[in-house]
Write a structure and sequence with these properties.
Strand order of the largest sheet: 14-12-15-17-26-25-24-21-22
Number of helices: 13
Helix content: 25-40%
Distance between the termini: 52 Å
CATH topology of the largest domain: Rossmann fold
Number of domains: 2
Strand content: 25-35%
Radius of gyration: 23 Å
Structural class: alpha/beta
Number of strands: 26
């Protein structure tokens, strides 16, 4: 084991919608503006908050999730991705102590303890004065192994309100107030049916949010926050030399395999943005040469041996995707010829016959026999556990898989003869019982997998691509 000094904080709150994301992106902006390299993290499996944190810092945001990952895996992943950074910032989820059970398993507090990080508590101070001290004190003492080291006040009404709040916390709690954000419209982050709008979807919106984050950053006591971050003790982890590559930028070009075995297409554009950097790193470590595909612009599939289609919001871009008939037709032909394809959520929607949204039916790839209908409410949202009931190139029968799902779409008119890869033991999947449509070498599911929780997935996808490439060359001869 080796000790690593990484200044770090966890941004948490008493409950959801307290302003964690507002404070986090403001803090990231302030740290970067001050000239420091900052590595962002998100507690839990969320893609959307992470996209904004990546956009602001220019570094891929990492997810830390104790439901999906073991404690030492979280610590090692945290350190590996922050080795060249001056500071690390983790945005929590829900309330600080909220988990999946009475013991708080999977909570933000559990992540803070795992990486031994001090906590900044963001408090929504609406209609509150001296009572804020009682609230903060409760969070300070609920679990003595969690260090609540500072408070950031959100939705402060006016100067007098702020003065009372600050004095109450400093007198009764003995910790500093490290920022105060007014209750104004400017401090608002756009939302949609699954949370925040992804950063890659709208450049004009992204610029507005970056300006907003700069304004928030100026309201924070950066010097005081840096002092708290430097209170974090060294972390003891063991990092294997020559392991998986580490993405340092938001582009695929920085990921290169030392010994490429297969070319793998990764669908990356406004419609498909949900990719864990660890999944891409795992593919490269297994021997993949990653090739980007844009469903809105490319008219032909590149020469590849396999494909990975992640999640996103294809319904928002459905008209453009549907109009790209040449690409859809080419991909369908490749699939019929046996191209190995692994698709998640948005990828599942894209591979069906159509997407019906807001009264309009949009034609999709048509490679898989079903239609997709968008709903107003989530159809599946949360962690999911699966048992493999039918083998595929990517999973063997009998294996157990953990992941998460969040989708507002529903699969309709699915062919009766279709085979499913997974039986759902927790969650919803496609129909409450199954997930993972199997067709030739395609597996399309609602479940999002994380390579640090499902280590065999990436090597098997690359192996399937390598096998397909050899078969293809044999057929040509």
């Amino acid at each position: 084991m080796r000790l690593y000094n990484i200044p770090r904080v966890v941004v948490a709150a008493p409950h959801g919608r307290s302003g964690k994301t507002t404070v986090t992106i403001g803090l990231l902006s302030a740290i970067k503006t001050a000239g420091y390299r900052v590595q962002p993290y998100k507690k839990g499996p969320d893609f959307i908050d992470s996209s904004w944190m990546s956009r602001i810092t220019g570094r891929p945001c990492r997810n830390l999730d104790s439901f999906l990952m073991k404690r030492q895996v979280i610590r090692t992943s945290f350190v590996r991705s922050a080795l060249d950074a001056d500071m690390a910032v983790v945005e929590g989820a829900m309330g600080l102590f909220d988990g999946v059970d009475l013991d708080g398993s999977g909570s933000t507090a559990e992540i803070a303890k795992t990486i031994e990080a001090p906590v900044l508590l963001v408090v929504d101070t609406t209609r509150m004065t001296r009572s804020v001290a009682a609230l903060v004190s409760g969070y300070q003492h609920f679990d003595p192994s969690v260090q609540v080291a500072g408070v950031i006040l959100n939705k402060v009404a006016r100067q007098r309100h702020e003065k009372i709040l600050r004095a109450s916390i400093e007198r009764y709690c003995g910790i500093p107030v490290l920022g105060a954000i007014p209750r104004e419209e400017i401090f608002y982050v756009p939302e949609r049916h699954l949370g925040l709008v992804p950063a890659a979807e709208n450049d004009e919106l992204a610029e507005a949010v970056i300006g907003f984050s700069n304004a928030v950053g100026e309201l924070l006591d950066l010097k005081g926050i840096l002092e708290v971050a430097h209170q974090a003790p060294p972390l003891a982890v063991e990092i294997s030399p020559g392991g998986a590559p580490v993405m340092r930028t938001l582009r695929l070009q920085g990921l290169n395999s030392a010994a490429p075995r297969a070319r793998v297409a990764v669908f990356l554009d406004r419609a498909f943005t949900f990719y864990y950097p660890e999944n891409l790193e795992a593919l490269v470590a297994a021997g993949a040469e990653l090739v980007a595909v844009n469903t809105l612009r490319d008219t032909k599939m590149p020469e590849v041996d396999a494909a990975y289609i992640g999640g996103g919001f294809p319904e928002i871009n459905a008209a453009e995707i549907s109009a790209n008939v040449a690409l859809l037709s080419d991909l369908q032909e490749r699939i019929e010829a046996g191209l190995p394809v692994y698709a998640e959520c948005g990828g599942l929607m894209f591979l069906g016959r159509s997407i019906y949204w807001r009264g309009v039916k949009h034609t999709m790839t048509g490679a898989l026999p079903y239609d997709v209908t968008m709903q107003d409410k989530p159809q599946g949202h949360g962690y999911i556990t699966l048992q493999v009931e039918n083998s595929s190139p990517y999973f063997a029968a009998g294996e157990s898989v953990r992941g998460h799902e969040f989708h507002n779409s529903r699969v309709d008119n699915i062919a009766e003869e279709i085979k499913f890869a997974f039986q759902v033991t927790k969650g919803y999947g496609i129909d409450g019982q199954h997930d993972g449509v199997l067709y030739k070498n395609v597996l399309a599911c609602y479940t999002h997998l994380h390579a640090l929780a499902t280590s065999g997935w990436a090597p098997r996808l690359v192996a399937a691509g390598e096998k397909y490439a050899k078969q293809d060359k044999t057929d040509l001869n």
